TrEMBL record:
GO terms for molecular function: hydrolase activity. This is Dienelactone hydrolase domain-containing protein. SUPFAM superfamilies: alpha/beta-Hydrolases (SSF53474). It holds the Pfam family DLH. InterPro entries: AB_hydrolase_fold (IPR029058), Dienelactn_hydro (IPR002925). It comes from the Eukaryota. Residues 37-187 form the Dienelactone hydrolase domain.
Amino acid sequence: MSLTSACCNTPPTDAHWHLKGKQTPLSQKIAGQERTTYRTGPKDSKRGIIAIYDIFGHHDTTYQFFDRIAESHGGFQLSAPHIFHNGAATPEMLGDRPRLMAWIGENGDYKKSHIDEIIRVAVEDLRADGCTSFSIFGQCWGAMIAVLAASEEGTPFLAAGGPHPSFFSVDLVKNIKTPLIALASKDEADMVPVVAAVQAKGFAVDSFHQRFDDVHHGWTGGRGDWTDPIQLKQGLVAVDLLGGFFAKVAAANESKL
């Protein structure tokens, strides 16, 4: 598995967005510490989504992306936990791959950084608020986290994936228990073998892949500038594809109940 090169040299951006959700405490402490999550979307929806931001944490474009997905395809209750308790990656780390990889190892390890616990609590909080089905996606490094969560035995998730994924490989998805959605920018490696490996598992809903060759890595998150009309256009396409995919797997699950 490798980190997309653009992840090491593309800085975060700011694009103003009026948040439609709110910061909410998680119901349980994680490693003895209070943690929060960004909750957005219609509170009467029974479909839940866990969203994992990229290494730059929450930015206005990230919030906009999450808010728009939560409002798409009939609505979802979306929870985006604050993963980086000691602060997100900084622009000063860009261009220094060893430093950035060391930072991810220290702050973004699925088990060591208690991300698995954070996700489990966020899911239970959504369940307590009426959600009966769950999907998970992430941006960049967060898409890898989504796959790891969907590879757990007894995972609650029905689908996983995300835009501009890093660290994706056939080996990463060998234990995934759900169909996969991968939305690659021009900077990512070929996702076809990874998606094909998941497709071969024979899930009821087909996995999905689309490449966006006119936008860069990170365009839906901390590196996105949606004042740029191309990034906005393709960002809205990504919103529609993710929301549609998660609605489809939720509907397929409901048909089995």
